[in-house]
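Exercise 7. Predict the joint structure of the components listed below.
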Amino acid sequence: LKTPLKQAATSQLVLTERQPDCQPLTTPPKPKETPPADPWTPTSNLKMLISAASPEIRSREQRRQLSDSSSEALQTKHCLQEHLLGDEYEKSQPSRKEKSLGLLCHKFLARYPDYPSPSQKSYICLDEVTEELHVERRRIYDIVNVLESLHMVSRLARNRYVWHGRHNLPQTLQALKKVGEENKYIQQIQMMKKREYEHEFDPDSERNEEMASSFGSSEQSEMSFVELPGVEFRAASVNGRKYKSLRVMSQKFVMLFLVSTPQIVSLEVAAKILIGEDQLEDLDKSKFKTKIRRLYDIANVLSSLKLIKKVHVTEERGRKPAFKWTGPEVLPNAQDTKLEATSTTSSPPISESITSKEQCSKALFPSKGKQNFTRHSSLIKLVKSIENDRRKIQSAPTSPVKISASTYQSLPVFPNTIAQFPAITKHQLEGQSKTAEEMQMKCALSLPEAVPKPEPSQQPALSQPLGVCPASHSSVSPVILPHPQSGVSYAIYLHPSQAHTVTTYSPGFMLQPLPCANVTGIKSNNSKVLNKITTEEGDTQRGLDEPTKSLAAEERPETKSETSQRCLKRSQALPETNLIKRRKSDEESLDTSLTFFPSGYLIPLTHCTHGNKAECSTKEKAGVCSLQHTAYSSPITGVIPMPASELKTVNIPAFHITPLNIMLSPNSIAAAPVLSNSCLNSSSTSSAPNPSSSALNFMLQHIGLIPAGVQIPANPVVQHVPVSSQSENISHSSGSTNVQEGKVIEFTFYSPINESNFLFSLQPSAPKEPQEPQAVTENFFRTPGGPNTEPALSANSDGTQRTSQGALYIPQRKLEVSED
DNA sequence: TCCTCCCGCCAAGCA
DNA sequence: TGCTTGGCGGGAGGA
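Solution:
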């Protein structure tokens, strides 16, 4: 940079030696590094000596100078510019992007035709390529390895490859798809997601370990390179490294796209699956990172080949990088190719052709497990008509939209698919006016969550192992509340934030996933299942969003029109889908079409045992198991769900109930039927005690719905809970809520004793007076006999007076309940 | 801060 | 033994 005059004058040769160093693509100059006092580096010194000693070398250098004169002039100019602009030099260097593997791959591919004439083979000489593209050999290997995995090139000899172009691509892709199916990548993806959710909730649970082991065992352990006949694999390192090579990884990566629907694979999932094939247990961060790095390498090349395209999948836990398959559609085993997959999997070959529909059902009904049920459309109609009959029996007000929405939300956790399940199944089975593509899309959209799902209607849901339920779906965290005095436990279903408070507050509390109903609304399901996919270009987004929208749109009207039916269906599935989906974004997603209204609620754990379909059907016969029995057998009962639209109206998002106030008096505990949570594992349909008014009253008193003195007559059949005349207490203690913003809250209440569901409507007895939010909350959770124990209440299980009598004014602002 | 991924070390394996 | 091949991870540019 600031060469001393002395040296500049010393040797023209040295100068010319240095000038080419300015070339960006050769050895970068390091002017700054040159110590001003000693510009003679050992290298230059040596070169000068050699040059001086050998005329031949000198003349060669001169020739090179001449040949490069033009570019040199430019470079000199460049150098001068650098001198002038100082650290501008660095900017003149090719940016990182310009050196990207993707761009390099583009350059590489541009050298060869996509479909070379078979008669004249193109050969690739690595030396030439590296020289012409001005890259390191190492980078070319990255490209060539991926191309090799697609049989677009094959290695001929050292330094020498043959270019096949895209001739073999269809065959290769088909082979890869086949192998991918054989390797059950779909299941692996599902398993992985499931595991992920479980892990999020319960990182050290045995279930996770089981899952991990099953995951590890289910996948192919030593899948090797998938070859095509005639395109043999002649890697330099045939053994050992072959199995870890970028080639194999690339093939697996492609397989993931080919087998999954939609053909979108996130890097995270891909990396985990690829690691899982080695050993999932040793999944450490560095390994994961390395895998991700390699996947980026592969993805870059595949992107250059226009086989995939980068997208982003927005999930509840953030934006994830993913890639979407944009390559040719691979028909599922349309024709049995003469492909030879050298996979060592023992999976039997797939003989039958798999239609997209079948894949769909495959994804939704994984073969393992007992969830492999579908409901025939006729059954759906049957259920519908039953439900209609029930509606007729019940008065119009008894088919509350709100409750329906809530019950609809009280969907299984598994939700996401379960939520759409009936619709999907219906579509699948009826297949009316739906194209196969649409079907596929639907399935696809539900795939991300397509863990093995139980069919709601056809089996006693409680027989479902708890472990199947991904607890982490729960939006409402069930908190097991052990009570030392009674030796029994309660489950409180809380919003995560509340749950957190609880755990913070009381170390004795323990967050434990329970098989409880998913209280999240369908929208949240949708939003999760139908991950919002955004491409960088944005075009794909439209395309992908559309099905999302359409599906969501399809769901919404149904929510109203077929709510009852869904309620029925889902209520039957509740026991096993008792996990309440946990979502951090619950509050944020209140603008969604449906959501639930979180609250704390004490539920004796007996619920999980008592509620089952058998009982339900019994009740149904008796005309008691109304559509509200969505809450049936589910601790969800305490959750007060509301459609988001309504929440919007009353600004409920801020409604929080601090669980710290949920205190049980020893007396009440003693009075309540409580079982240890081991009963949760029981699938027995053990008969509940005879309907007991004391139990019912206990519950009602505990949630502050009736004063301690009020007794509700026990009757398995619908009861009208007398409205307390003392309900003014709660209203008078309030202070801030605008009457116009008040809202009727309805919710179902399941009495494990009565085995009945009760529908409650809450209203302030004096709507003119604003209510104090805290008072409301307190009354919700106070122990019997406490002050202000009489909230206005009308409750019945047939709901006949529900809307007309009950109205609780929900405070507009956040309810903050101080510790009691 | 996290995502991306370039870069080059260095070991395995081949000629 | 030198060269080719490629696994691997540090760390830097970019978003």
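Discussion. The two ends of chain A are 76 Å apart (CA to CA).
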